[in-house]
Amino acid sequence: MSKNKAESNALTPKTGEQRQSWLSLAFVQAGICVCIPSFLEGALLAGKMPFWEAIASGTVGYVIVVVIMSVLGFMGSDLGLASCSLAESTFGRKGARYIISVVYAINLVGWFGINNQECAQSFSNFMMSSFNIHIPVAASGIGWGLIMLLTAVFGMSAIEKLNVVSIPLLLAVMFAGTVIAVQQFGLSALDKDVPRSMSFMGGVALSFDFYAVGTITAADITRFQKSRKDTVKSTVLGVFPMGVITLVLGAMLTKMTTDYDISSVLITIGLPIFGVISLILSAWTTNVSNAYSAGLNFVMAFNAPDNRRREVTVAAGIVGIILGLCGILTRVEDVLSMLAYLVCPVGGIMFVDYFIIGKGKAKNWHSVEGWNLVGVAAWIVSVIISFALKIDYLGIVASAIIYAVIEHFVPSLSREENIREAKND
How far apart are CA 251 and CA 55, in angstroms? Predict the structure, then answer.
C-alpha cells in the first residue's frame, strides 16, 4: 500500500510491506479513545458513585479492554486479516457475512452517528455563543461527517497521519483546559458525595461497554502490525493511557463544572478557540476509525467487490450521519448495552477456536465454506444468557465455555481434519 495513494482493498490480507510500526498504530489506537463519549464515560461514573471509586472502576474496565484487545489482536497480526474475515473460521463464510459483519457494521455505524452528532451540536453551540452565527445542527452534522469520512476513505495511512498530529495537540489542550478549570472552580467538588446508583462492577461494565466494539474488532487495526509484540505495545501504550486520562478528566470536569464536555468547559472559561479545536479533533480521530472499520464490514455484508472499500466506506458513513440526525445520541446508554450483548460473545468464540483448538498458530486457521453451526449456536446461546442476566461482558466468558463444550462433542468445521475430509469428498 503506497503511503501516497488511497487504500482501495478491504479484506485482502495485509502483507509484510503493508505492515506499519507499532508507534504509528499506537497513535491510531489512542485516537479511538479520545472522543467526547470518553469524557461522557467519566461523567456518568462520577455521577453514580464516589469520585475515586468511579476512577478505579473505570480503570479496571480499561485493563480488561487492553488485555482482550491485545489477545484478539494477535489474530490480526498473525494472519493480516480484518475481524470480519477472521470470523469465517468460527461462523463460516455465510455466518461471517450475514451475522458477524452485520452486527459489527451496526455497532460501528452507530458509534459514528453518536460521535458525529455530539460534534455537530457542540460546534453549532460554539458558533452561536462565540460569533452569534446560527448553523443548524443538521448542517453541522452533515458537514463534519463528510470531512471525517474523507480521511477514512484514504485508509490507514491517512488515519495514522491524522493521529500523529492530533493526539499531542489534544493532550496539550485537555491538560491546559483542566488546569484552568481547577484554578477557577477548585478541587473541593471532587469530595462531594453523590447518591450511589451504580455498583463498582457496574462501573467496570460501563467502562468496557464504551470500547466493546473496538475491543472485539481489534484485528481491523492490528492486521497492520508486524508482530504480536508490536500489537501489545501499540495497544497498551495507545489505549490505556489515553483511556484513563479522558476518564479522569471527564469525571473531574463533571464534578467541578457539572459539564463533562471539555470543549464546552473551555468555551465557558474564555478559551473558545481551544474548545472548538478539542471538539473537532476528538470526534475526528475517533470517527475515522469507526468509518474505516464499518466500511470493511459493509464490503463483506453486501458482498461488494474488495476494491470498492472507498465507496462502501462513504456509504457507511452517510448511514451513520443519518442515524445521528435521527436521534441515536439520546439513547446512547441503551444503544451501548444492546450492541455489547451482540458483540461480546463473538470474541470468546474466536478466542477458543484460534488459541485453544488451533493452538494459536496461523497455519491452523481455516476459512469454512457456508455456515459453521457450532459457532453460530454458541453465539446465540451466549447472547441469550448474557442478556437474561443483564451482564453484557459475561458473553465473552459464556461463549468461550459454551463453544468449547459444544465443539468437544460436535467438532467444528474449522478443525483441520474436517477441512481435509470436505476436500476429499
Answer: 8
Cβ neighbours of residue 208 closer than 8 Å, sequence gap 6 or more = 61, 64, 65, 215, 340, 392, 393
Which stretch of 44-53, 115-124, 156-165, 185-194 has the lowest confidence by average pLDDT? Answer: 185-194
Locate 51 and state its grid cell. Answer: 469520585
**Between the CA of residue 300 and those of 11, 103, 150, 303, what are the distances in Å?**
8, 12, 21, 5
The model's confidence at residue 420, banded by pLDDT at 50, 70 and 90, is: low
The Cα–Cα gap between 79 and 58 comes to: 32
pLDDT tens-digit profile of 41-65?
A: 888 888 888 888 989 999 999 999 9
Range list of H helices, 326-361: 332-351
pTM of the model: 0.83
Distances (CA, A) of 127 to 78, 124, 141, 329: 47, 5, 14, 21
End-to-end CA distance of the chain: 39
How far apart, in whole angstroms, are the C-alpha atoms of residue 62 and residue 46? 16
